[in-house]
């Protein structure tokens, strides 16, 4: 019997347009001997600063073993997808990338059933996937893992629940000033290739002294063999910050209904409050599944509790 994360069939490298960019993805096909899901497919969108080869692939392999087509992809400006400046985090581009991935799958007539397409968003993509589902009826069900909203994170200056109640004017001013200065430098020297700053330290030894537990946990994933990847640099151009500051993932969460919604988060995740808030706003069929003892990043590669829940959800949501 195949495990949740091992597959025998290599994925198919694919490309599709999103706005003016070319998106690079990998299509995982159902494993031989897996159940017939009648062309059901799941789009999987990766975390902030991540690439498709990390946690997205871990979940794609699990779903392929369960009989689903699974499409992972690099967001625009990131990984193997096109776009400059490299690493730009543009929420509206990220949402369009998800919708473009759905469009790609709907064009695979004879293999994918366009009435059986679901969506899985991880970390920031839990927010992006929510936003996309709110306004795209082609997405028949939505699941998130360790969901977060980059807009609220930027406006509040933190992912922690104690900062979630109110916006931080200083954090907003700092973000906007950094973006303004980066845009000014780019205008003055358009051909310059400026290296973006790292969003957080990935060396676990250096991160151990960081008083913020979220960034210590991030380094334990991105800075070790669990999640290290050469194209995942954690470098985010400051031009991203003014794009993020006015964005919100969950304000219209009620528009997902009547389609089913599953949000999964660890009990020790600093970001758990995002899922609780989003579920509270949502209507219809909605489930918040909390995994005891797990932090935000544990669920990137620990599938013991999440895999059965996700398989049941997509089986029923895409039947």
Automatic annotation (TrEMBL):
Residues 34-140 form the Dienelactone hydrolase domain. InterPro entries: AB_hydrolase_fold, Dienelactn_hydro, Polyketide_trans_af380. Pfam families: DLH (PF01738). Gene3D superfamilies: 1.10.10.800, alpha/beta hydrolase. Belongs to the polyketide transferase af380 family. This is Dienelactone hydrolase domain-containing protein. It comes from Trichoderma ghanense.
């Amino acid at each position: 019997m195949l495990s949740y994360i091992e597959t025998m069939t290599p994925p198919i490298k694919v490309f599709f347009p999103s706005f003016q960019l070319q998106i690079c993805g990998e299509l995982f096909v159902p494993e031989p001997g897996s159940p017939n899901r009648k062309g059901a497919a799941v789009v999987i969108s990766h975390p902030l600063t991540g690439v498709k080869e990390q946690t997205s692939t871990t979940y794609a392999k699990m779903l392929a073993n369960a009989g689903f087509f699974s499409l992972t992809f690099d967001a625009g400006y990131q990984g193997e997808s096109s776009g400059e400046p490299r690493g730009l985090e543009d929420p509206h581009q990220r949402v369009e990338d998800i919708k473009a991935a759905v469009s790609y799958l709907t064009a695979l007539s004879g293999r994918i059933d366009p009435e059986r397409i679901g969506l899985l968003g991880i970390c920031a993509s839990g927010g992006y996937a929510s936003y996309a589902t709110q306004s795209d009826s082609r997405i028949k069900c939505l699941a998130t893992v360790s969901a977060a909203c980059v807009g609220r994170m930027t406006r509040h200056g933190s992912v922690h629940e104690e900062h979630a109640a109110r916006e931080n004017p200083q954090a907003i001013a700092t973000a906007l000033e950094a973006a303004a200065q980066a845009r000014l430098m780019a205008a003055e020297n358009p051909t310059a290739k400026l290296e973006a700053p790292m969003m957080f330290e990935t060396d676990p030894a250096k991160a151990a002294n960081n008083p913020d537990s979220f960034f210590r946990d991030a380094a334990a994933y991105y800075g070790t063999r669990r999640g290290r990847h050469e194209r995942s640099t954690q470098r985010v151009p400051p031009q991203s910050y003014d794009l993020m500051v006015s964005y919100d993932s969950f304000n219209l969460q009620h528009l997902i209904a009547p389609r089913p919604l599953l949000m999964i988060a660890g009990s020790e995740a600093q970001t758990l409050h995002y899922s609780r808030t989003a579920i509270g706003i949502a209507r219809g069929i909605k489930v918040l599944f909390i995994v005891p003892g797990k932090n935000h990043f544990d669920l990137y590669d620990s599938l013991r509790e999440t895999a059965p829940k996700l398989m049941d959800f997509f089986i029923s949501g895409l039947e």
